[in-house]
Amino acid sequence: MREQQGLTLTRRHLLKGVVGGAAGLVLGASRRVSAAAAQAVSGSTGAQRLADDLFVLQLPGEANVIAHTGANGVVLVDGGSTKVADALMKMIGELSRGGQVQTLFNTHWHPEQTGLNEALGKAGKTIISHENTRLWLSTDITWSWNGQQFKRLPKVAQPNKTFYTTGKLDSGIRYGYIPDAAHTDGDMYVYFPTQNVLAVGDVLSNQGWPVVDWQTGGWIGGIAGAMQRLQALANDQTRIVPGRGPVMSLADLKVQATMYATIYDRLTTLLNKGRGPSEAVAAKPTKEFDAQMGNPDEFVRRAFESLWAYLSPDA
Ligand SMILES: [Zn+2]
After folding, report:
1. 291 CA to middle of ligand 1, Å?
2. Most buried among 60, 94, 177, 313, by the most CB within 10 A?
3. For residue 71, what pLDDT is reported?
4. How far is the CA of 12 from the centre of ligand 1 (A)?
5. pLDDT in tens, 226-247
């Protein structure tokens, strides 16, 4: 069943990825310091204030969590991992002066995003995700490349409100699917129009190379494609919150778009020459970006393997 769906998606994503990659070829990507390092809230809370009612919560080693503190309670984009659930809830309680979390978005299924699901699900709160994310959270998953296993979440912890394309909360917060399969095949964004803040989960990383989770649909062509798509959701003033690292600007996003388009082209060229993952790593297809992004070997290997899933004739 999932195999069948995967086949259909493959063809569609391939087209989108190729179009996105070509459109992104603008040379001259200069290294940029994120426009964003901006105002950390004073004190050691690990919260960065984006607006009076909007915060990025950054705990050491954890993915970014976005908290909107409205009159009708708190809306969260992602919930950290289970081990920081208590610390996060304490921070949120302080920032919102005791406000209750009413809504949690899961930008995708990874444990770094879904650590609050069980507690909030048991409390009867709304957990919103793309339908594919709910499906992944309701099944056991093993990553082929390292054997890491992920157990399905109990029913109460699974998203209880899913969507396929877009949606909107009463407060005006908008959300939608990022169908390129950049990180997984359930990626989504959340847009806060009043504050002009766009949260995109691990589709974007501003702290090292991303995980290309091809086991659940992500691929390098999808990353290149999503970089194009996200630009259409942002303007020059939009602050873009990646899954990890500092807040970004549209200019930062454009730099990454150029980078991933370049890498995608190089990897497809290697694939077309019949090279394998180790040869792709040895060819250093990311070399001019490594000083900024870090050791690329795992990323390149996964990215190359993801091409097999999407581009091989029998895929
Ligand atoms: Zn992730």
Report:
1. 23
2. 177
3. 86
4. 22
5. 999 999 999 999 999 999 999 9
